[in-house]
Design a protein that fits this description.
The structure holds 2 protein chains of 2 kinds.
Chain A lengths: L3 H14 L2 H30 L19 H7 L2 H32 L6 H13 L2 H11 L6 H10 L15 H26 L3 H9 L4 H29 L3 H6 L11 H10 L4 H31 L1
Chain B lengths: L1 H18 L6 E7 L2 H17 L2 E7 L1 H13 L7 E5 L3 H6 L7 H6 L9 H8 L11 E13 H4 L2 H11 L9 H11 L2 E3 L2 E7 L8 H13 L19 H17 L9 H9 L3 E7 L3 H5 L9 E4 L11 E10 L6 H11 L2 H9 L7 H4 L11 H8 L2 E2 L7 H16 L6 H18 L4
Parallel strand pairs in B: 1-2, 1-3, 6-7, 9-10
Antiparallel strand pairs in B: 3-9, 4-7, 4-8, 4-9, 5-6
Helix pairs in contact in B: 10-11, 10-18, 18-19
Membrane topology (chain A): Multi-pass membrane protein
Subcellular location (chain A): Cell membrane
Family (chain A): Belongs to the binding-protein-dependent transport system permease family.
Chain lengths: ~300, ~450
């Protein structure tokens, strides 16, 4: 006991002697270490693997350095370009629909009416569910014989419910996944837009009223420009999320029929953990990372410009 | 009485031998989560009683089975002491050192592979194929076959209508062409006020479904994996005119005669479709058959069992399923795991295994005169096991399988391209893989 007291004094003194900068580093260091361990190191490792023919299921096999061969194969593989097209189709349509529906819902919810809070809660429910669960129960909705979706379409159009299959048809399956993602994530866009709408001070509209600006003009010259940064943020979040979309679509269609809904992430998973072409899939992952990172950087610059306006 | 005494004596001697074993261990057996696994849990209680070891089980549903277990093996995991792994894993597991080679153990314990059905030894135990290098004991024989609604076939009004339309009796089909006629006949038909469909076939994309289903048909149309004279030469064998016709047939069956929404169907979906009375014919592995016999809707004589029909030239083959039981090389309880295999190989244990719904591969069981009449499907199982072929069991099987899944699903379900293009593409994919493997 008596030994420890004198020993602790110099430590305290030393801590007191630390500069603010050193203390700041002391606090940040664990986070930086964690980031390096779980993000940076795997990234560097993946880049290294992308130049080899390593297969994770064959640890005893000799690993060969193949240079840029994996990248060449990927960039000349029509199947990869097909998955990129499928991903782009999914991305463009989900974002367009979610922006449209999300903004409309936000605009409607922003108006004061009875039961406003209840409606808001009900609308945001889908985004609180697990994507795997959503995918699973929508497969039942889309079931041609017992599915609710087919019966609703049948009710309005008069076609036989079992005459079409949403997730088994080459034409309809890409729209089936877009519908579900839109149903699930439009509320997210709505929430962000709602924050934007509520941030617009009332006096701006009052001034516009005094200037006798029409509601239409107020919408285009006040509402839209002021909500735009929020909307762009929502597009960024949804864009990144949907570029790496996996769970929902795997549950719904498994990438089928054929490769009709095989998004880039599903293809990547197949290459990495079903075919076990680890080197090849690492190269594909690097390409996808560079694509997302590059596009997101350009987009963030555009977003900052809009905010500064 | 004599048999009873012998069995009792054998059980006692084995019990005594196990009781003397060094120490009681807690073993974990890994397998797929399905009905036979439940039967094995029950059966293994006898081993626990006899040996003093405790058995634990890790069962994973089929769609995730390969992912989960191959990850376990590849990472050198110690979770599983015993593994009932899929037949296609044998090459990779042997070459990567995941399984313990069992030759010495078999020799020391007088376990001979001649005692097992030859196709199961080749399919589940040998690597390289057709060499006496054994990595597992055949544990569960399985094969793709067909079930059909015998009660519907026997209805006079249906039988008469069929005869009028096709000029022959409505009986179990002998050829694939006849099978399609029957499926077409039932497609969209009203039976007992309900719309029914022709057939349930494998179309699953994610794991191995459509490959198992299409190959089951293609073999009888002349498909071969390689030139029998020159290994890995695939041109003209994988994409032979017969193979192309076989794939076209499979697509025509999918297009004309399956129930709506079956674009991603495998074993479970087939069972559901058949038990719920939606289809007249069903392609599925034999392991599903005991379940049909006890089902209130389709059991009790309502179901007929059918060996794969013949192709256009009379050739008849079937897709092998099933698994062997292996000792995992990373297990620290290998002696106890080997004890389990020794116990499992005994004829009386194998006989009990069959009686509980496990498809034994032991010849003493399946060649017993009473076997064929022991269950309504027993003879069909035996006949099917005599004509089996299996997918590649190469270390690169996973890549070969996924390439096949894509080519077949793209053509059969999505209708992309032609059968010739699909099989030409498959030759190209497989060639790249074998080149990467240094085998071409």
């Amino acid at each position: 006991m008596t030994d420890t007291i004198p020993a602790s004094r110099p430590i305290r003194r030393r801590i007191r002697a630390l500069s603010d900068r050193s203390i700041a580093w002391l606090f940040v260091a664990p986070t930086i270490f964690l980031l390096l361990a779980v993000n940076i190191f795997p990234l560097i490792w993946t880049i290294r693997l992308s130049f080899t023919d390593f297969r994770a299921n064959r640890p005893n096999r000799e690993v060969e350095w193949v240079g840029l061969e994996n990248y060449r194969r990927i960039l000349t593989d029509p199947d990869i370009w097909n998955t990129m097209q499928v991903t782009a189709h999914f991305l463009v349509w989900t974002i367009a629909l979610q922006v449209l529906i999300g903004f409309t819902l936000a605009w409607l919810i922003n108006r004061k009416f009875r039961g406003n809070d209840l409606w808001t809660t009900l609308i945001v429910l889908p985004m609180m569910l697990s994507p795997a669960v959503v995918g699973n129960f929508w497969t039942f909705f889309y079931q041609p014989q017992i599915g609710l979706f087919n019966y609703v379409v049948s009710f309005f159009s008069g076609v036989d419910p079992s005459s079409f299959t949403m997730i088994g048809s080459v034409t309809l399956a890409p729209w089936a996944i877009i519908i579900v993602d839109t149903w699930m994530w439009s509320p997210f866009v709505m929430l962000i837009c709602l924050a934007g709408l509520r941030s617009i001070p009332d006096y701006i509209y009052e001034a516009a009223e005094i200037d006798r600006a029409s509601k239409w003009r107020q919408f285009w010259t006040i509402t839209v420009p002021m909500v735009l940064p929020f909307l762009m943020l929502a597009v960024l979040f949804r864009g990144i999320e949907n570029f790496k979309m996996f769970d929902l679509v795997v549950q719904l269609t498994g990438g089928g029929p054929g490769s009709t809904t095989e998004l880039a992430s599903i293809n990547l998973k197949r290459e990495a953990f079903e075919k076990w072409r680890t080197g090849y899939s690492s190269a594909f992952a690097v390409i996808l990372f560079v694509t997302v990172f590059g596009l997101a950087s350009i987009y963030v610059k555009a977003l900052n410009k809009v905010k500064d306006r | 009485m004599k048999r009873l005494l012998l069995t009792t004596a054998a059980t006692l001697s084995v019990s005594a031998a196990f009781t003397l074993s060094a120490q009681a261990e807690s073993l974990t057996l890994c397998w797929a989560a399905w009905d036979p696994a439940n039967a094995l849990v029950e059966l293994s209680k006898d081993f626990e009683a006899a040996s003093g070891h405790t058995m634990n089980f890790e069962f994973v549903p089929w769609p995730n089975f390969a992912d989960r277990m191959l990850n376990e093996l590849n990472s050198g995991g110690k979770l599983c002491d015993l593994m009932i792994g899929d037949s296609q894993w044998i090459g990779g597991a042997a070459e990567s050192g995941h399984y313990v080679k069992l030759n010495d153990f078999f020799d020391a314990n007088a376990i001979t592979m001649d005692a097992f059905v030859p196709a199961t030894v080749t399919g589940y135990s040998e690597w390289p194929k057709n060499t006496p290098n054994y990595w597992s004991l055949p544990a569960f024989g399985d094969v793709v076959g067909w079930t059909y609604r015998k009660d519907w076939f026997e209805r006079p009004e249906i039988a008469a209508e069929f005869k009028e339309k096709y000029g022959r009796d409505l009986v179990a089909p002998a050829t694939f062409a006849e099978l399609r006629d029957i499926a077409e006949f039932f497609q969209g038909r009203e039976i007992d006020g309900k719309t029914v469909y022709g057939a349930s076939i494998y179309t699953e994309r994610g794991s191995e479904g459509i490959t198992m289903g299409a190959m089951d048909v293609l073999y009888s149309f002349g498909f071969k994996y390689e030139n029998p004279e020159k290994p890995y030469e695939m041109e003209g064998f994988v994409n032979s005119p017969g193979a192309v016709a076989g794939l076209e047939f499979y697509k025509s069956l999918y297009d004309c005669c399956t129930l709506p929404g079956s674009s991603n169907a495998y074993m479970g979906e087939g069972i559901d479709a058949y038990k719920s009375g939606q289809v007249a014919l069903q392609m599925n592995f034999a392991f599903t058959w005991p379940g049909f016999e006890v089902d209130p809707n389709v059991g009790g004589g309502k179901t007929g069992y059918l060996v794969n029909p013949a192709g256009p030239d009379g050739e008849r083959f079937a897709q092998l399923g099933g698994q062997g039981i292996s000792v995992v090389a990373y297990s620290e309880k290998q002696d106890a795991a080997l004890e389990y295999i020794k116990w499992f190989a005994q004829p009386d244990v194998q006989a009990k295994w069959w009686s509980m719904g496990g498809f034994s591969c032991l010849r003493a069981v399946v060649e017993d005169p009473s076997f064929a009449s022991s269950q309504p499907y027993a003879q069909t199982f035996l006949d099917s096991m005599a004509i089996v072929k299996d997918f590649w069991a190469e270390p690169a099987y996973a890549t070969l399988l996924q390439d096949t899944q894509k080519r077949f699903h793209d053509y059969v379900v999505a209708g992309t391209g032609t059968a010739q293009e699909a099989l030409d593409g498959l030759v190209a994919d497989w060639t790249v893989t074998f080149e990467d493997e240094g085998k071409l």
